[in-house]
Design brief:
Shape: elongated
Radius of gyration: 36 Å
Order of helices and strands: HHHHH
Oligomer: single chain
Structural class: mainly alpha
Length: 129
């Protein structure tokens, strides 16, 4: 039985020659493209996969504004809401260039107050019904 040897396979090449041939083909990265080993880097996977939800962002934004819990008392809430609507209307009169924006905000809060009142009336009717 004779063994045929592929002429492309040569076993007379030493390890040193194989390593040299591979290192000649490999190229080093350009200067400044790799981060140094001693610099701490943050994986970008965390930024992509662990983004806060909308509710978490809103809680983080409004939490400092809600430190005064007196706003949760209905009488205080309505007083603050009326005051805010008055301030928005005054700001609309004081700054004509932004008047439309302030008026829209005041109208929105007034509608919110009306809907809250209607909801409160319905709830009272159901309770005392």
């Amino acid at each position: 039985m004779s063994v045929k040897v592929n002429p492309l396979l040569r076993f007379d090449t030493g390890v040193e020659e194989v390593i040299r041939k591979q290192s000649e083909q490999a190229s080093l990265p350009r200067k400044g493209t790799l981060a140094p080993n001693n610099v701490a880097t943050r994986p970008m996977v965390e930024d992509v996969l662990f983004k806060p939800s909308l509710s978490e962002e809103m809680n983080a934004y409004f939490a400092p504004l809600m430190e005064d819990s007196s706003i949760l008392v209905p009488a205080h809430y309505h007083r603050l809401l009326h005051g805010l609507i008055r301030k928005l209307r005054a700001a609309a009169e004081a700054t004509p260039e932004h008047a439309a924006l302030f008026e829209r905000a005041a109208d929105f809060l007034a509608e919110l107050e009306e809907s809250y009142g209607e909801l409160h009336d319905r709830r009272q009717a159901q309770i005392h019904g």
